[in-house]
Design brief:
4-stranded antiparallel sheet, 0% helix, single chain, mainly beta, 8 strands, 102 residues
Length: 102
Amino acid sequence: MPPFYDSTVIADSKTFAAGETATASVAKYHTPAICVALENLEGNADDTLTIEIVGAAGTYAVDSRTLSETGSYVVDVPQADTVQLTSANGSTISAEARNNPR
């Protein structure tokens, strides 16, 4: 088990193209917390950010929200092999998966 303060970067002030997905391994975390910061809408009126988990049983959407202004939020996800973050319209995002031991 990794240290309680461990984290994995999903995106570091990355400007996503419309429909682009970033993926990170979270297999070593029990129940990761996904921390997302929408930094810039890049001229779009809004953007829909979708978080999915991927494992042996398939891919499941955990959270999807449409944001019309910059801001941040945290989503707890079940244990999985990887997590995916997708930007529907294209925006600048920072995100990380943090170990969330119980």
